[in-house]
DNA sequence: CTGCTAGCGTTGACATCTCAACACTAAGAA
DNA sequence: TTCTTAGTGTTGAGATGTCAACGCTAGCAG
């Protein structure tokens, strides 16, 4: 073997092999993210007839009390101006949000939008627990938080 | 105004606070994935005039010796038939791959495609190290591998 | 008033991803 | 042979994301 794995004979089969190649570790990271994402979305947004970006925006508006400047919304999500504009246009056509000019542009939940996010919100927490945190030990969560913060 | 923020005004300071809410933990996961992804792609695919899906497909073909059945390629990536078909059509138009009917469809690297992936491959490993594994301790990597496998 | 600059948002073009519907091939049953 | 079924690919439409270019508004200098 070109990569020494320490003295152990072979206590942990494939795990160490996968760890040797950074690229494989990265692939595992991507895979894990994708799997959790698909399951959470299936249990929340899709179940309510919303897409993932719909849910993201509605949740942020709700957390902010129901309305935000478009630029603040974009900043809080780390989204591009163009991206938020297109997404809000689509959501406006479906009656989830309204936009009004007031210096900048203020985005607000409609009744329909508020109803949708209120219905989904508790399920979101449940879904994340079921598909992610319930499968991890407290110590693993601590480790991951530390890692995520560093990246 | 209508939303009580507890005592502190800072949104994300205390690790323990973020850990308490599964949804925040999930947000941190998504953010970490996105940050690493953007940096790795910027250092590899974009630097070579390729997109992320281009790179993914070229790397898999290269690892398999230069050609694969379209269905095997899709299976090894966990991609949809439709997705691989559209992507290969676009890549074919740019001269990166060819497709030939032989029972199923066999996808092969062109000279141009092989040149591209050969040029990028070493940089990919370096980029993943720089933006991910170099920032983690050996023990953290062990923990993450264990977690990723479980999900 | 005119012109400049900067911030903010929109638009159009294109790439990507997903879904539903269709086409082709191979294998087996009638 | 003919029909059926399963496996495999393609196509078109719609949703999403990114880039470049443009338009609008506000503030500020001339």
UniProtKB/TrEMBL annotation, chains A, B:
SMART domains: HTH_MARR (SM00347). Pfam families: MarR_2. SUPFAM superfamilies: Winged helix' DNA-binding domain (SSF46785). InterPro entries: HTH_MarR-typ, MarR/SlyA-like, WH-like_DNA-bd_sf, WH_DNA-bd_sf. Residues 22-151 form the HTH marR-type domain. This is MarR family winged helix-turn-helix transcriptional regulator. It comes from Kitasatospora aburaviensis.
